[in-house]
Amino acid sequence: MKRARPSLSSSRPHLRLLVVGLALLACPAFSCPLFPPRPGAQATIAPPHKAAPILTPAQAQTPSPTLLAHSGGTPPPSPTPTSQRDTLTPTRTLEPPTPVPSRERPAPTATRALPTTPGARPEAPSLPRPSTGQQPGVPLLLSNPFLSLLPELQSAEGPQWLQPGLRVTYRAQTASIPQARDEESISGAGYVQYDVVALDGALVVCHLQFYLEVAGGAGLPSASAPSYGSPGSGDFWLDPAALASAEQAASDRLKVARLPLTVAGRQYDAVRFEYRPEDAEYVWMFDADSGLLLFYRHVIGGEHADRRELAEMTLLRTRELPAPWAQGSLPTWVQEGAKIQLQGPYTVAIPGSPGTALPYELTVSVKQVGNNWAEFGLAGYLSGQLSSSYSQVTGAWQLGGRLWLPPGTSAPAQPQLLDEDPVTGEKVSLGRGPNGTIALVQAGPAHRSTIYFELRAGRPIAAELHTTVGLAKVTVELAARGQQ
To answer: What is the CATH number of the domain that holds 393?
Structure first.
């Protein structure tokens, strides 16, 4: 018997979050969580430029993977497979991940392992899941269509590899193709990284970071956002036990099939979901053994649409991150409603022109607090006008993009490299800042951001950003104005 197929109009947030990724990554921005995606852009979930159809469950689990750059380049490869087997080869072939020497994990207890780059499948970690803590209301959980298509996901324990400290990286390509001949196409490519930063009872908390690809294949950080899921289902996973009966969710518009899929030279047994509403196509492919999302694609816009929007995302690799603050606790100042205000100059310098400095203010508000993680709302004001509004999550297992450090964190005598990402080239390091502060630095080929934390309270009190966008050099310097 086939399952009922409820219509979830509330599933639109997933599609809208995807559209935000497309829009924000049209302009390179910043990795530092204290800086906005770009001045003048609203980083909140916004509707697409043209109204999208009401989505049924299969359409709406859009895992926010896409990037878009202003260019006249060619669109990504055709989303239609050229053979019976979907064979996808990312532009970069990466080596298998190297075990992180700074943290040891017990022997695995699960039979399913997490797929990764060719040549290795890392052992499934057996870290204990945190006990149930405060469960904040997370609207995105209510919009996950697979929870309705496969009801067993609602009570599933989730794959054993889904543990704090995991990073999953995807290669993404997008294009916006006009139907009119006199308009230009817009296309781009980059990376999407999901970091699992906390497991809080029935809630999986992830930090989502978009990167725009720059010269040499390195990544320039752009938009970031929280990503929430349940143990059974999230943006980039489904419980593999539920995939065993996935065919029962099939309908006239939702096709479910099993087929081999080759990603970066490795072959998987994939479960493929294809949903075709009017003037659109959505495809998800999951590894049948682990439940990890291997591939995602959408094509939006029919024959009479002004533009066709294409996007696809392919798994690149998985790895464990060093977690120097995993055993730390939330500082006491992280309480719902607490605020930090920072201000300073926002300077743009172009060769041959005098630099322009504008006043910039940022308010950081604690929106919700969980078990060793918290979500923050950030509002930026450029010359007194609201220029950005977005959310940022920080969990105990998080490495970069943090907004708090555990109380008592000590600064090393010499700068210490914590991690260098093999895909984006971004380095995360820890050092001593001025006036007894701790400096957390994230740097890449075209950017460097630093957050200075109070030594005892673990509170951000200053930040600096240096980044290059084309010929322009952007510098932002912020210092705490007051705390509430």
So the answer is: 2.40.128
Helix-, strand-, coil-residue percentages of the chain, each rounded to 5: 10, 40, 50
Could you tell me how many residues make up the chain?
484
Residue type, 145: P
pTM reported for the whole predicted model? 0.76
Residue 285 shares a structural domain with residue 352 = no
Same domain, 384 and 281: no
309 and 349 in a common domain: no
- Which residues touch 435 (CB under 8 Å, ≥6 apart)? none
Residue ranges making up the domain that contains 362: 339-483
In a shared domain, residues 346 and 236: no
Asked whether residue 85 falls in the same domain as residue 41, the answer is: yes
In a domain, 168, yes or no: yes
Query: For residue 337, what are its two tokens?
Result: 């409603």
87-88 β-sheet, strand order: 87-88, 254-263, 266-275, 280-287, 293-300, 307-320, 166-178, 186-200, 203-213, 219-229
As given in the structure block, the two tokens for residue 446 are 């075209």
Q: For residue range 264-302, list pLDDT tens digits in order.
A: 788 999 999 999 888 899 999 999 999 999 999 999 998
Query: Is there a single domain that holds both residue 231 and residue 352?
Result: no
Tracing tokens 């920072």 back to the chain, one arrives at 342
Separation CA 297–CA 315 (nearest Å):
12
pLDDT in tens, 111-154: 345 654 433 333 333 333 333 333 333 333 435 778 888 989 99
Q: Range with the lowest mean pLDDT among 108-112, 167-171, 473-477? A: 108-112
Could you write out the DSSP letters of every residue in 266-307? EEEEEEEEEE--TTEEEEEEEETTT-BEEEEEEEE--TTSSE
Residues in Cβ contact with 6 at an 8 Å cutoff, skipping those fewer than 6 apart:
57, 148
What's the total number of domains in the chain?
Answer: 2
**Based on the domain organization, do 394 and 310 belong to the same domain?**
no
Asked if 29 and 38 touch (Cβ cutoff 8 Å), the reply is yes
> Could you read off the pLDDT of 215-245 as tens digits, one per residue?
767 778 888 899 999 999 999 999 999 999 9
Please check whether residues 122 and 190 belong to one and the same domain. Answer: yes
Q: Say which amino acid occupies 204.
A: V
| Cα distances (angstroms) measured from residue 131 to each of 6, 136, 325, 369 | 32, 15, 18, 15
